[in-house]
Amino acid sequence: MSKFLLAPLSRRRFLTTTALAGVGAGLIISPFGNMAFAEDMVHLRLIETTDVHVNIFPYDYYRDREDNTVGLARTAALLNGARAEAPNSLLLDNGDFLQGNPMGDFMAYERGLDGTNVHPVMKAMNLLGYDAATLGNHEFNYGLDFLNKALAGANFPFVLANLANGSLAGSPTADKTFLKPYMIIERTLKDGTGKEHKVKIGLIGFVPPQIMNWDNKWLAGNVMTRDIVETAKAYVPQMREAGAEIVIALCHSGINGGQPTEGAEDSALYLATVPGIDAILTGHQHKVLPGPDYAAVDGVDAEKGTLHGVPAVMAGFWGSHLGIIDLMLQKDGAKWKVVDHKSEARPIYKRDGKNIVPLIDPRMDVEDAAREGHEGTLAYVRRPVGETSAPINSFFSLVYDDPSVQIVSQAQTWYISELIKGTANAALPVLSAAAPFKAGGRGGPDYYTDVPKGPVAIKNVADLYLYPNTVRAVLVDGATVKEWLERSAGMFNQLTPGKAEQELVNNDFPSYNFDVIDGVTYKIDLSQPNRYDKDGKLAAPDAHRIVDLQFQGKPIDPAQKFIVATNNYRAGGGGNFPGVGPDKIVIEAPDANRDVLIRYIHDKGTINPSADNNWSFAPVAGVTKALFDSSPNAQAYAASLKNVTYVGPGENGFARYALTLSA
Length: 663
Fold this sequence. Notes:
Structural class: alpha/beta
CATH class of the largest domain: Alpha Beta
Oligomer: single chain
Radius of gyration: 28 Å
Largest sheet: 8 strands, mixed
Number of helices: 18
Number of strands: 37
C-alpha cells in the first residue's frame, strides 16, 4: 500500500472533501483526488448505468402514471455531481438499454428505425456523453437488423467480446466478432500536483451466452456465443500486450456463488479470477452492489463492493442507481496499477415507510431529448394492440376458473413451449401456474381486473399482471404438482357438511399464492382440512383437498415429469410451496411475465381468454351458501356462472355473493 494513501473515508467525508490542487479552487471532489498529492498518482472514476430498459422518463407506461423510482433522466441528475467530484471519469453503460418497457416495443413494432431517425434512448445517451457501452441480452429481443439500426444512432462505441458472427473459430481471439471485442482509449489524467499523465485504458464487454436460447429465432445461424470467462482469459492478455495499462470489464452478467460452469449465465464473480482485470461493471440481475443483496455469497465483499478482491459495482435497474468505482492509480516503473479503490451505488430515491421519496429532480434536457418517443409511447399504450373475444375480469377469480388467470397461463405456456424446443426437456408436457393478483381483499372493492370484450391496450396489461416478475420454468413430477395445488387450496376455509351457510374464503391467505395450474384438471374438496398451514408447513398429513387430479383425461402419474411455467417469485421459493425452489428451475427466462403477455396478445391479434374450467369445487353436502365478497360491479357477470348468486351489500363497499356447493 502506498504511503500516500489515507484510511478509508466515511460517506460524509467522501462527498465533502474540498478542492483538488491544480483543478480549481472550490470544486467538490472525491477524496481519491485529494489522495493523489504525489506525482505519478492519479484518480480515475468509472461511472456505470445498467439495465435502464428504455426507462428514460420517470414514468410507468403500464399504469400510465409517473413513477419516481425509475428514469435515466433522474439518474443523469446524479451524474452531474459524480463528474464534478472527479474530473478524471468515464461514463459507461453495461447493457439492456433497448428493451424492457412499452417505449422499446413502440420503437420496434410501431415507429421503427429507417436509418434517418435515432432511437430515443440513444438520443438521451448521446446527450450524456457516454464513453463506451456493451450490450445486454435484451438488446437482441427485436432482432439483429433493428439492433444494428439502433446502434448506428449512437455517438459512442460498443464493445462485446463473446459474440461471433457466423460460427465460432478455433479460439476466441480468432472469432470474427459481432462488435469490436475491446477497445483501448488513451486519456490524459491529472494527478494531485496538476501534472498530466497519459493512461491507456482497456474496455472489454460480455453478454450472457444464453441469448442463443432466449432469442434463438433471431440469432440461430447468424451469431454464436462463447463462455464469458474463457473469452476473457483469451482477450485480456492480448489487451495488455496491445498497451492497456488498466483493464475494465463491462460484464452484463450477474453474480452467482459456487463453482463456475461452462457457459454460466451469471459469471461476474468467476470473471474476477481472470488475471489482468482491474474492475468489473456488473448487471443483469437487477440488484445492487455494494449493498446487502450479495452479502451471503462467498467471494463477494458486499460492503466494499469487491469480487474476489476486484472492485465491482452493480447499479440496480431502470435507472434506480448510479454506479461508481473510484480507482487510485500509481505509477510503478513504466506501468500504472490500482493501489486503492472504492465502490458505491447512489440511489435516485429512498423509501420512507410506504412512501417513495425522490432524492433528486430529473434533468429536463434528457427528457427533452426523448420527448418525441415518450409522447408516441403514451399514445401507443393507450391504443389497442389486440382484441379479446370475451371479457377479462377477476371478480370471481377465487371461486371459479377465471379469464384473468387463464390469459396469463396461455401466454406463459406459449412462451415456455418455444424456449424448451431443442433442449433436453423438449418432449415434456408444459403446464402453467398463475394466480389472481387483483382480487379485492385489502385492496378494496375496486381492486379487480375488468377489461371488456373488444380492444386491449397495453396499459390493460397492468390490470392483468401487476408485478414486474420474470418468467421461470421448473421441472417437477406429478406428485409435486399435487402438493403445489394442496398448498394453493389454503385459499379456502374448511366447510362443514350439512351446514348451509359458511364463509368460503380465508382472508388471511394472499391471493397471489392461490396458484391455478393449467394443463391438468382437478377438484378441491373443502370438507377436508388444509394439508399445509399458513407458512407452508405440513399440518394435516392425512388430509387431501385435491381430488380427481388428471392429465389428458387420466389420473396423473406421480412420477411423470412436467415443465411448469411460473414466475421468479414462485420458482425461487416464494410462498413456501412444497417441492418448488431454485433447485427445480430449468429455465431462467430474461423476460418479464407482463412483457410476455404483451407479446402474446400482439402475436395472436385476437385472444380468447375464456376460462376452460379445468378446476372446480367438489360437492359438499348441504352447503347451499358458501359466502364470499366481490365487487358490486360483479353482479352483471354472476348470472352467467353456475351456482353463483348475489346476496346483497357487504361491508366496506363490497358486495356479498354465495356459491352453492351441495350436490
